[in-house]
User: What shape does this take?
Amino acid sequence: MTRPLILTGIDLPLEPSCGSTIWCSDVYARLVGHGYDTVFAHLPGSGTWQHGFATTARLASAKVPYGPGFDAYADALTDEVAVLIRERRPDLIHAQHLGFGLAYAFARAAGEVPMVSIAHGTDVIVATEHKQARAVLNEIAAASVSVVVPNAAMADEVDRLTDGRHTDRLAVVPWGVPLPAAPTAHPRAGRRLRLVHAGRLDANKSTVTAIEALARTTGHQLTVIGSGSELDTLTRRAAELGLADRVTFEPFLPRQELFARFGDFDAMLFTTRTLEAYGLVAVEAQAHGLPTLFSDVPGLAATLGSGGLGFPPGDIAALASLIDHLAASPATRQVLHHKAFANARGHDIAHTAARLAALSRTAREGAR
Assistant: This one.
């Protein structure tokens, strides 16, 4: 008997450049165990990533952001997707992001194929700021049997952006990560902390908050691991604050290499400015035993639980105070280490895959 096929993808190169592609790799590798095959569509890229997709399909359209050229880009993607649907004959479409061009193309080309759309955070953030993005989000939601969100805060925001028209389609599926058997980071003695900030360096991640908070402390070291549009600005700001010897910038690391580095640090700083779908790298850090000092944006406290300490978004003084508090109390570091690891055990990617598989079965049965 032929296994049902899911067509999905993101209009980005096939690289671990953001949490969305990493999450998809984790989930769809596990959906095989729930009886599904997957084709993952993507834009041209390096192709060297050891991802978990059994089958991929490379698209040819050159990416265009929102603005005057977006409609033509979406038209070209829609033509490509229509060909993919004719050739692959999927039983179900999973549209990643409520606003990226490929999800929009899926919505326009799906025809009789049932579609489940999945919010990732960046899509929802852009839709709050950009009229064109909000219109695309609404069209994708309208074309979907279900709209998957990772937490209740994201569900509320999508409901607001769609003016409550699709409340009954919203489905909360908590995200997860692959869990190590045991923590690899352990509390150290001493009052000078080695801190890490890892992930995409863009305005919403607000890495500058971590750097400016460090300037209000004494002796602690910060390593920023990642790449993105804010790198030059962050480098200049660290120099302006006289932190050249206390802030180290390192390029993006493949996942397993990042995991191997977690043992070098005492805590992770997670400084998102507005909305966070999940906080993938923060949960991964917790799974390896690292406490997190996190920006208390909607939904993130529920995800990171008692394995971290929250501060108001963008509040430099509050974050500096938390850093000093953690440095002064080895007992607090020890407690947070155990709580971080315990909290992460509730975020197993296997549970995410099982929930998404069940939702997919419901969507297919409803279509039949």
In short: The chain has 14 helices and 13 strands.
